[in-house]
Amino acid sequence: MVYGELKIRSYDVQIHRARVEDLERRCEVGPTKRVVLFTDTMGDPICRIKNSPMYKMLIAELGSELVGVIQGSIKLATVHKPPKNLAKLGYVLGLRIAPLHRRKGIGLRLVLELEKWFVANDVDYAYMATEKDNEASVNLFIKKLGYAKFRTPAILVNPVDRRALRLSSKTEVAKLRIEEAEFLYRKLMTSTEFFPDDIGNILRNRLSLGTWVAYQRGESWDGFGSDGKFPSSWAMLSVWNSGELFKLRLGKAPLSCLIYTKISRLIDKIFPCFKLSAIPDFFSPFGFYFMYGLHLEGPLSGKLVGDLCQFVHNMATKTKDCKVTVTEVGGKEMLRPHIPYWKSLSCPEDLWCIKAMKNEESTILQLPKTPPTTTSLFVDPREV
C-alpha cells in the first residue's frame, strides 16, 4: 500500500535527472543470488533507450521524493505471428523502485502507465526480460499483469584480460561495409524472431563499431553473398559499444570469484612469463562490448564463431574501461557452445515475457508453446 498520493509523470531532464541518477545508483540489477551489479548512466539516465525509434521514461513521486522509474521503447520487428511477420513491439525496461518503497504497488502503477503509452501508439505486443529467479519481477509481470513466458535465452559474459589472443592462421576475418552488412542481415535473418525492421539504423549508429565475417583462408568471397554464393563455412557478427552509454560496477560476487581474481593477478604479477589470464577489476566502473546479429553456416562455422569472439576480445583490449564482452543467444542456438564465457557472471536463462496489447490472448497463449520460427533470436543492442 502506498502512503500519500503517488504521482506518475513523464521524465524531464531539467527537473528529474539528478534524482533519477541517484535512484539508479542505489538499485541493484542482475542475478542477486550470484552477483549484484550497479549502473552508472554517466549523467544521462535515458541513455539506454534514446537510440530507439520511439522511447519514453516515466517517474513516480511521493510528495517531493522520487521513488520509482520505468523506461519503454517501440519498434517494428519480426514476431512469430501468422499471417504477417512484422509487429509493433513495446519493450519494458529499467524498472527501478527505491529500496524503502518496494512492495507498495509502485512498480505495478508504473508498468500500467507505460502500457497506456504502448496502446496509444498502436503497439501489438509488449515484452520484457528478467532473470527467471527474480521472484518480484516474475510475480509482477506474470501473475499481476498477465505476461506469458516466451523464450529463455542465455546472456554470455567473458572477461577481457588485456592480452591479445592469437587467431587461427586458417581463418580470414573481414569487415563488411554497412551496406553489405544490411544486405546480408535482410537476406538471411528477416524471419528471425525479434529482428528489427530498422536494422540499417542500428548498423549506422555511432555505437555500432562494425560487422565482421570469418571464413576459411583461401576461400574467396566476392560481393559477400550478393551473388547468392557463400564460403563453405562462415560466421558473422556485429559489435555495439555499450560502454559509451553507461558503466557497470560489481557490488558483490561469489567467494570463488574473488579468490580466483586475486590469485590470477598475483600469478600474473610474479610470473608474467606464464601468460595466464588476469581477471579485470569489476568493482570499479567498467564498460562492455555487446556482440549482436550472430549468424553461422557450414560444418566449420562453430570454430569461426569462436575466432570472431577472439577477434572482438582483441578489439576490446584497446578500449579504455572495456572489461567484458557480452552476447545473448537463444537457448538452443547452435552457436552457443562456441562462444567463450565466464559462468560466474553469465545468466544461463534470461526469461523473456510477452503480452498482447490488442486483446489477442489466444495468440499469446500459443506463442510460448510454438517452436521459434528459426533457431536464432535477434537481440537488439539498443535494448541491452
Order of helices and strands: EHEEEEHEHEEEHHEEEHEHEEH
Q: Report Rg.
A: 21 Å
Question: What is the tally of beta strands?
Answer: 15
The quaternary structure here is single chain
Name the overall outline: globular
The residue-averaged pLDDT reads: 86
Distance between the termini: 32 Å
Strand content: 25-35%
Biggest pleated-sheet summary: 7 strands, mixed
Structural class: alpha+beta
> How many alpha or pi helices?
8
Uncertain runs are 263-267, 271-276
Give the strand order of the largest sheet, numbering strands 1, 2, ... along the chain: 1-3-4-5-6-15-7
Q: Helix amount, in percent?
A: 10-25%
Protein name: N-acetyltransferase domain-containing protein
Organism: Populus deltoides
GO molecular function: acyltransferase activity, transferring groups other than amino-acyl groups
Domain N-acetyltransferase: 6-172
Tag the structure with descriptive keywords.
384 residues, alpha+beta, six-stranded mixed beta sheet, 24% helix, Acyl_CoA_acyltransferase, Plant_NAT, N-acetyltransferase domain-containing protein, acyltransferase activity, transferring groups other than amino-acyl groups
